[in-house]
Amino acid sequence: MSTRYSARAAEHAVTAIRLGNLRVDSTAMVLGHNPGISLDIPVWGALIEGSGKRIIVDTGIADPSWVSDRLGPCWQSADETIEGALDVVGWNPKDVDIVINTHLHYDHCGNNHWFPNASIFVARAEWEAAHQPVSSQREVYCERDWLRGGLTLFDYSLVDVDYYDLLPGIKIIQTPGHSAGHQSVLVNTEGGTLCIAGDAANVEENFMGKPGGVIVSVPDALASIEKIRASADSILMSHDQRIQPFQSKEFPRIPRVATADCC
Ligand SMILES: [Zn+2]
User: Which of 135, 190, 212, 234 has its CA 20 to 30 A from that of 249?
Assistant: First the structure.
């Protein structure tokens, strides 16, 4: 199945917003790689504009001190809060029509409540997994994050269709592996099909046969990476150190071929 958009599909503009920073072990980015070496990584959300709609993919971290106390160093500058980042681009939270969560880890859904008029889209499998997380991911799911501000199940649209047509030129695809119900977003842009990949991939090395290290299924993670490679031209990953704040073009190209190590 060809999933790339034709030139006739509606084009959308995408802007990366930086919603904080985390210090993690290198093994979080590439499974088993450089254990004991710390990395400072950004947390990216994405703004999509087009078809008369405003959409945000992933809403970042609500409480950096909670993260620092429980999981490891986390910090935000003034323009890395949801309020500060939206202010820079001139978006009023009331004007956001749709929130998409790639998944429900604490650094992707903490500010869903900021958007009072938005429908929130999350995969049904993720909603279910988040309420009964596997033991290795109990620390990164906290119901408080997705129900903050009085949100309930009824504020959420649960996606259980793959290649879900959200709007002309925007599809939601299922990309499990990092979490059980992870999803990614394909957006038709001026520069081709962009995949807003959440944590389905973290770094370019993940496209070389080496998945990330925070994972519930290696086979699923590798299959999701191949699905993204087959579906998109460029990529915006949630923790990519190559992205600049408020970047809106020339997102990294997806390596076309996995270069396997020779035996
Ligand atoms: Zn995650």
Answer: 212
Which residues make Cβ contacts (< 8 Å) with residue 259, sequence separation at least 6? 208, 209
* Length of the chain, in residues: 263
Q: Are 77 and 245 in contact (CB under 8 A)?
A: no
Rounded distance from Cα 174 to ligand 1 centre (Å): 14
Calculate how far, in angstroms, residue 105's C-alpha sits from the geometric centre of ligand 1: 5
15-2-260 Cα angle (round to 5)? 80
For residue 104, report the distance from its CA to the centre of ligand 1, in Å: 7
Tokens 């202010």 sit on residue: 87
Alpha carbon of 186 to ligand 1 centroid (Å) = 18
Cα 124 to middle of ligand 1, angstroms: 16
pLDDT tens for each residue of 37-75: 999 999 999 999 998 999 999 999 999 999 999 999 999
Q: Helix, strand or coil for residue 214? A: coil
Give the type of residue at 95. Answer: D
Helices (H) and strands (E) in the chain, counts: 6, 12
The alpha carbon of 199 and the centre of ligand 1 are apart by a number of angstroms equal to 5
Instruction: Judge contact between 167 and 51, C-beta under 8 A.
Output: yes
Give the span between the Cα atoms of 41 and 133, in whole angstroms.
Answer: 24
